[in-house]
Specification:
The chain is α/β, with parallel strands linked by helices. Helix content is about 40%, strand content about 15%. It is elongated. It catalyses: 5-phospho-alpha-D-ribose 1-diphosphate + nicotinate + ATP + H2O = nicotinate beta-D-ribonucleotide + ADP + phosphate + diphosphate.
Length: about 550
């Protein structure tokens, strides 16, 4: 799917124009970054780097690709297609923040250096690979933050994802963002992500009566004996529950087709029996039927996994179910039964998790799908890919909207940490500036706001951009980590952030700055590249007073 053709047509038209003008081999530097944190928050998690590196490692146009591009651009010269035929990324260098890192606006996630034409061809696929990956990883991390570290999070989004590739990507990046498992079997196979799943309402409603169960035998957990009629054992336990003093009045006759479905599922999976209990009535049928089957399994040495709630008042039902489990543990002396796992699903999102926490609940695991994988609260991260230098000459992109003004030149990026171990600020410097050092007083300036500045004395300095593809430079190359290691990095990075940067409502903005020298250079280049306007209007734009001498026809600011 991710091939050199996965790009916008204008990348090819620009590449041809570069080639036609003899500029295609000019050395260019591009920054990939985003302008605003998603979901109203103040942090983002970087993901998708591995896929970018795999793309450039295998970047090559096949003959059928060349033929197709000839049909698309029939007026282009043959020499251009010969150029494409030999093109690869052997002269491209990629520097990036490690995948799984917490990142912030304006700071380059990736710096890509190389011949301008080939790097231009990489723009669209790189932005595509980073945009959704970072967005959904951040969404997953936000869900993890709200749920807390003691709850299990299960990604159930495959059926609602934007196509097969969206479903696979969502499972991978939700795992990086802190989810524990996925229902997506293909993702489990590809990436080694733990799989979780039980049954649907269709399985329960497919049974009409216990008479449909043909083979009722079940071997004990230790293999020492066989129960010839497991269904009868289940029914015996259900009768005991109906006569129980502690459960009197909670339920009467349960749905027998549901009991049949639970019994059948337990016969198939005695070691992993987890039942969906809301097909008919949670407290008057689903929970009692589940408990009867779970207690029968317990007699044979098995331990049921728990229940799933997929509708209704999840907080209330989880609390009532927990009371039911505790009552059984106490009355029938079944150790650990009161701690039975309760999983909840049903279109959950960040807001519902927060509401459940405020209400109080007994849920142990959350299955989350639609709002997670579709990033329902925000459609895109908005990554951009901007030229910052060509032929060692810094370039800047100007705009009436200051948030869209790019930060020019090849840069180094550092994270400065305070005494308590929290990150204080990210700072960008020119490539040849002296890097910040521990214990040194450093001026940190807002890139565009004259009045926003601060001095910081860091207790630790971390350089953010590392070489992941050295090209022909022979620089040391970082290895791509395993998925599990990326996930661990993400969790560690999130834990070391200050809580006020992480909170859902009104989070404190994290500071991103430039050095004093880079600030001065940005504004020098800005003035140099801006179209010339009348001195009077230029002075007004910068807030100066302008005095005009009618005799000499000159002015002073």
């Amino acid at each position: 799917m991710v091939t050199p053709l996965l790009t916008d047509l204008y990348q090819f038209t620009m590449a041809y124009a570069y080639w036609k003008a003899g500029k295609h081999l000019e050395r260019a530097v591009f920054d990939l970054y985003f302008r605003k944190n998603p979901f109203g928050g103040e942090y983002t998690v970087f993901a998708g780097l591995e896929e970018c590196i795999r793309l450039i490692a295998n970047f090559h146009f096949k003959e059928e690709d060349i033929s197709f591009m000839r049909s698309v651009m029939p007026t282009c010269e043959d020499g251009f297609f010969n150029y494409l035929r030999e093109l690869d990324c052997s002269d491209v260098e990629v520097y990036a923040v490690p995948e799984g890192s917490v990142v912030f606006p304006k700071v380059p996630l990736m710096r890509v250096e190389g011949p301008v034409a080939v790097v231009q061809l990489l723009e669209t696929p790189f932005v595509n690979l980073i945009n959704y990956a970072s967005l959904v990883t951040t969404n997953a991390a936000r869900h993890r933050f709200v749920a807390g570290n003691t709850k299990s999070l299960l990604e159930f989004g495959l059926r609602r994802a934007q196509g097969p590739d969206g479903g696979i990507s969502a499972s991978k990046y939700c795992y990086i963002g802190g989810f524990d498992a996925t229902s997506n079997v293909a993702a489990g196979n590809l990436f080694g992500i733990p799989l979780r799943g039980t049954h649907s309402h269709a399985f329960v409603s497919s049974y009409m009566s216990p008479d449909e169960i043909v083979d009722k035998s079940l071997r004990s957990h230790d293999g020492s004996s066989t129960c010839r009629d497991f269904l009868s054992l289940v029914q015996t336990w259900l009768s005991k529950l109906q006569l129980s003093e502690s459960l009197r009045g909670v339920f009467g006759e349960t749905n027998q087709s549901e009991l049949a479905a639970f019994t059948s599922y337990a016969l198939a999976f005695p070691n992993n029996f987890l039942a969906l209990v809301d097909t008919y009535d949670v407290m008057r049928s689903g929970i009692p039927n589940f408990c009867a089957v779970a207690l029968a399994l317990n007699d044979l040495g098995y331990k049921a996994s728990g229940i799933r709630l997929d509708s209704g008042d999840l907080a209330y039902l989880s609390i009532e179910a927990r009371k039911f489990f505790h009552a059984i543990e106490k009355e029938f002396n079944v150790p650990g039964f009161g701690k039975m796992n309760i999983t909840a699903s049903n279109d959950l999102n960040e807001e519902t998790l927060d509401a459940l926490n405020k209400q109080g609940h007994e849920i142990d695991a959350f299955g989350i799908g639609t709002y997670l994988v579709t990033c329902y609260a925000q459609a895109a991260l908005g990554c951009v890919f901007k030229l910052v230098e060509i032929n060692k000459q810094p370039r800047i992109k100007l705009s009436e909207d200051v948030t869209k003004v790019s930060i020019p030149c090849k840069k180094r990026c550092f994270r400065l940490y305070g005494r308590e171990g929290y990150p204080l600020v990210d700072i960008m410097t020119g490539e040849n500036e002296t890097p910040p050092t521990v214990g040194e007083r450093i001026l940190c300036r807002h890139p565009f706001n004259e009045s926003k500045r601060a001095y910081v004395v860091p207790q630790r300095v971390e350089e953010l951009l590392k070489c992941y593809w050295p090209g022909s430079s022979n620089k040391p190359r970082e290895d791509l980590p395993l998925l599990e290691n990326i996930r661990d990095r993400c969790m560690q990075q999130l834990e070391q952030m200050r809580s006020d940067h992480m909170r859902r409502l009104n989070p404190t903005p994290y500071k991103v700055s430039v050095s004093g020298k880079l600030y001065d250079f940005i504004h020098f280049l800005w003035l140099s590249e801006a179209p010339e306007i009348a001195p009077f209007y230029k002075a007004l734009r910068w807030g100066f007073h302008f005095y005009f001498n009618p005799v000499t026809k000159t002015g002073n600011v």
